[in-house]
Amino acid sequence: MTHWIILPVMLPAMVAPFIILAARYHMSIQRVTTVASMIALIALAAGLAWQASDGTVTVYRLGDWAAPFGIVLVADKLSTMMVLLTAILGLIVSLYAIGSRWDEQGRHFHALLQFQIMGIMGAFLTGDLFNLFVFFEILLIASYGLMIHSGGNKRLRAGVQYVLFNLLGSTLFLFALAAIYAETGTLNMADLAERAQMVSADETVGLRIAAVLLILVFAVKAAVVPLHFWLPSSYAQAPGPVAALFAIMTKVGAYAIIRVYTMIFPPELEATAGLHTDWLLPAALISLALGMVGVLAAKTLDRLVAFSVIGSMGMVMTAVALFSEEAIAAALYYIIHSTLAAAALFLITDMIRQGRADLRLTAQAPVPGHLLIAGLFMTSAIAMAGLPPLSGFVGKLLILDASYASPLMPWVWSVILISSLIGIVGFARAGSTLFWKARSIETETAPEGTPPSALSAIAVGGLIALLIAHTVFAGPAYRYTAGAAAQLFAPEAYIDTVLNTPGKLSPKTEEN
Fold first, then answer.
1. Which of 146, 217, 280, 380 could lock onto 344 through a cystine, CB 3.0 to 4.6 A?
2. pLDDT score at 251
C-alpha cells in the first residue's frame, strides 16, 4: 500500500492549522508556507498522475482496513488528473492573492484556502460515497469563509444564499445515502458497483429514488439548470482570487456525476435506465443556452463571467449526458479548458475592478495597465467563447463529434453552435465597451487606481500559457482523457483493486 495518495489531502490539512497557530500574525510566513505547499502539491499530483497514466489503479486504506469495511482513497487516471488541475490552480490563485494583496483584506485567508484545497482533493480521491459527502461539507465551510473574505453586505448576502442552497443539497445527499445503504448495505463505490447489478428488477424503486436524489445533489454543485440560481450572485460577489478558485468547484459536481453514473449506475443498469438522457441532457442544453444568453444580457462584468461559467458547465454536462466513451473523453478535455479559462476571466475582472469605479459595462476612463489587461481579456474571452485556435474550439469540436451517435444530435449541434455565436457577441460587446470605447474618453487627470502588480500579471499569464499549452498538446491531452474514459467504462480494474486488496479484514474473511 502506497502512502502517497493521502498526501494531497493531508498536506493542506496540516498546513492550515500551522498557519493559524504559528503564523497567524506573520503574513510573510503565511505566504511562503502557502506557496511552498502548493508547489509540493503539484509535485505530488504530477507523480500520482504519472503513476496512473499507464492505467494503474492504486488504493490507500486508512487504518489498513480493507474495503468495503474501511475508508479507502483511490487514484486512477480521472482522479489524479483532477487533483493535478486543482494543485496548479491553487498555486496560481495563491500567487495572484499575494500579488494583489487580497490576502491582507481579511483574516485567515491562507488557512481557509488550505482547507478548501483539502476538501477538493478529498472529493476527487475518495472511494466512498459517505466520505464524498464529508469532503463536500469541508468545501462548503471553507468556501463560505473565503466568499465573505474582506466583508461587505452584498458579499454576506450572496454567501448566505450560497450556504443555504448548498445545505439543501447536503440534506438531499444524506437522504440518498440512507436510501442506498438501506438497499445495498454499503457505501463503498466499488462494492456498490457490484451490488447494484444484483438488485432484482422488482426491487429497484429505492435504488432509483437514491439515484435521482444523487443526480440532483451533483447538479446543484455543477450549477445545472434549474439548480443554478446560487451561482451568478455568489461568484460575482466573491473576491477575485476566490472566484477563480471556485472555477474548479462546479467541476466537482461534474466529476461526481461522471464517477457515480459510469461505475455505480451505468446507462445499461435497469434500476436507473433512462435517467441519464430523460432530463440530464435537456437540462444541460438549457444551461448552455441560458449561460450564453446571460453573457449577452449581463450589465456588469462580474456577472458576465459568472454566467459564462454556467454556459461552460452546460457544455460539459451536454457531453457527460451522452454517456459514451468519446463523449466523456471530450468532456474531460473541456473541463480542463473551462477551468483555466474561467479562472483567468475572474482574475482579469479583479484587475479591472481595481482601476474602475465599478464593473458596469459602460464606457469609462481606461484602467491602469490598459493594454496588458485588454490583451489578457481578449485571449481569455476567445478561449471561453470557443473561437479558434485555442482549446475551447478544440473541445467543442470533440463534443460535437461525440454527439453523432445520439438521436438528439440535431438539438445538440443547434444549441452549441447558436449559443457559441451568442457568447461571442456578448464577450465582444463587453470587450469593446471596456477597452475600445474607453480609449475615446479624454481625462484631464490620470485614472484612479494602480496597474496590476507583476506577480498578479504573471499569475494570469500563467493561466493563458496553460490554455495555449492545452491547445498545442491537444493530442496527448485528449489521449489521456480518452484513457480515463475507457477506464471509467471498464471499471473491473478499479473494483478488483479496491475490493481484493488485502487488509486487516478482507471481504473473504467476512464471508467465512
1. 380
2. 93
